Structure formats: C-alpha cells, structure tokens
Amino acid sequence: MRPVLVISAVAAVLASSAAVAVSAQASLPPPPSGWTQVWADDFTGSANTLPSSANWIIDTGTSYPGGPAQWGTGEIQTYTNSTTNIAQDGSGNLRITPVRGSSGQWTSARIETQRTDFKPAAGGVLRIEGRIQMPNVTGAEAAGYWPAFWALGAPYRGNYQNWPAIGEFDIMENVNGINSVWGVLHCGVNPGGPCGETNGLGASRACPGSTCQAAFHTYAFEWDRGVTPNQLRWYVDGQQFHTVTQSQVGEPYWSNMTGHNGYFLLLNVAMGGAFPNGVAGSATPTAATVSGRSMLVDYVAVYSRGGTTTPTTPPPTTPPPTGGTRDAYSTIQAESYNAASSVITETCSEGGQNVGALSNGDWLQYNNVDFGTGGVRDFVARVASGAGSGVSGLVEVRIDSRGNAPIGSFAIGGTGGWQSWRSTPGNVSGVSGSHTVYLTFTSGQAADFVNVNWFQFRR
Q1: Separation CA 259–CA 122 (nearest Å)
Q2: N or C, where is the chain less crowded by C-beta within 10 Å?
Q3: Whole-angstrom Cα distance, residue 107 to residue 101?
C-alpha cells in the first residue's frame, strides 16, 4: 500500500516454480532454525471476534485524522471495525472481507500493530513473515481487490505527511486477482528520488505451485544489517524474488528510513485505487466485481537473528532540586516525579528503577519542565506491559493541570511482560516555556496496564 496517489508501471509476472503451497495450520510454527521469535499473532480467538487489541489497532474511516484523503491511494472503501469486515474465524485465521452494501458503497478493514519498534539489532537480521491466502477471486469478479501485508516507519504514526522518507516495506501486495505477489520498497522523496516514486522499487512473481488466490503461501521480508552494504530481501514460500541494497538507496535516504525507532505492520484489503486501476487500465471496482471474498491470515510473526543489542535506556537525569528546572529534551526518569497517585517504584531490568502498577486514573507529576521557545515535535516513553489480552490504555501528556486536555498520547497494550520494554512515540501539540507536566493514564479496564521507565520530548 502506498500513502500517496499515483502508481503506474506493473512488473512482469514470472513463471511459477514446482513448490506447492501447504494447507492451513492450526498453530504458529516454531521459529526457523537460528532465529528467535520477537512477536507473533496466530489469530486463535473465538469465531466472530476481533483481533487482540493488545496487538492491533483497527483503522476506521477513509483516512487518518489529518492525513491524506482515501488513505493517500485513491482507494474507495470505508474501513470499519465491524466483524462483517474483520473477524477471527475460530479456526486459527483472521478474515478481512470487503463487502459492497445495498447502496453500492464498499466497506473493508485495515489493522496495524500497536508496536512500532520492529527493527534489527546492529549487525543482525529482522524477518517479518505472514502466512496468507489472498481473496479467492479472479478475472472480472476480482477487479479492484487490493490485499496487502506491509510495514511503515514509526514516525508516520501521528504525522501522515512524511512519506516516503520514513520508509515503507510492501511484503505482499496483489491486485485484481492476478496470480502474482509484488514486493516493493518506498523511500526518499516523492516524486522521483532513489526509489522512483510513486512506483517504488519493486518486483513480482507468480506464487509457487498453487495460485496466490487458491492457497495459503508464506510471504516474508528480511532486513539484514549483518552484511555490507545492508540488504532488504523479499520471499514467497522461501524463494527470494526481490532485493534492494543500501548502496542502491544511498544517503541521506537510507538513514532517513532506517535511523528511526522502527516499523509497524499492517494488514488490509483495499478496493480500487491507483494500483488496481493502473493495472486494469480503467477505474475499479466495476459492476462485475463480486463482494465478500476474504483475505485469510493464518499468522504474522517477527523473528530476529544475530547482532548486538545496545542499551536502549539513555543516560539518567538527576531529579532537579526544589525550584530547579528540567530540560524537556533530556531523559526524565519516571521515578523522579514530584508527586504521584498511588503507584509503585521497582527495580528495572534495564537498570535503576521504573514506575509500575499504573492503571486508569493514575498520574505522575513533573515540575518546571522547560520546553524553551517551542518546536517540540513529539514525546517518547520507555514502557512495558504484562497486561492480559484485551487490556490496554492510553499514556497521555497534560500541561499545568490534570484537568486540562491532553496535548498528546499513545496507546499501549501487552508487550510480553512487565519488564519487556519498548520505546513508544506519541505526537504532541506545540508548547513553549516552563510547565508542570503530568503523565496521566486512561483505560476502559480497571487492571494495571503499563509500567514506565523514562520519557523525553523531541524537537
């Protein structure tokens, strides 16, 4: 999927090989030899239930708030959180189903991971993998179908104007029921740039053995920081079909798309838009397009291999003396609060202490935080959560009073444990001068949902 509007050229479809796609699996397979599982969802929930809110955000409407119309691609459907459009099927699959209503309006679904930090360690490799059956529809009935499994750079969340610089990895795309998988990198500037936007650097091939539409296939992407130059690689059923190297992209473009916090993953089925229209040579969908053909997702998993992990906790700051100021752009340790609700401090696996047992209505207060003359872009907090399935909440920033509206926030659910830390960003509105800063915590459940190690603001 592409967050801008025009796409034209279509890559040639290669001949299929002798490999045979396997049938649906009941559970997540073990990690490939030599790899460690970082994160996964195998969609084993009850029939007609939504995917885990601890893992996924369900996008709705026709754009992000303040983002490009029609999701920037010209697609014509409206995304919903209805189980008509998105639901687990009780057999270990997630179904995303485009539906045309009686008025002719299409609805469908799009989800993205809560996590935005998928990135290989220095010298290591990250593998993003999904086992998917594309909507089983071909020919004229498939006009406009646009299933995709992809990743976007973390800074896109909440900004929506910084594409393609922040990077996009299209792990699997397909349009119009063609027996082909497209793998594409988007980067640099639009139009043109090192990735030839708005097309991107792409390649395609037929699915091995059974067609993409008739069976499950495994689609994977690897980001390799262990070779020089670094590589990006695309696979279907273990067969590599596309590669982009660091030297192809060049600077500053490579650093712009790899130097940030990481990526979040997306799954969706769009209807119509620039890509299917460009392939068809006319507007899609058409009167012949059939409604209700689902993309089935058996699992999505992220694996890592090799590399060295550098400390992710910035150097601590000393709590200021009474009447002193804090630099908003330096690390503020969570336990250095000036006042708080009934929370706990505990030993942190990353060193020092963290604040824990944070739940709905809790708050932390930090006095005399100096933002200078303005220009604050966002804030990032180091958070962890061992909350159970379905338990999540918001980490919010408020200025001068807990009763004031938040100037920024982000959602957080289970991260895999109360000491499984991740750095999560959230945009904030402009602020300058010195203020009392409150971190407040809001959830629809009473249970604890987050621990905080540190936070800071960024220009």
Answers
A1: 11
A2: C
A3: 8
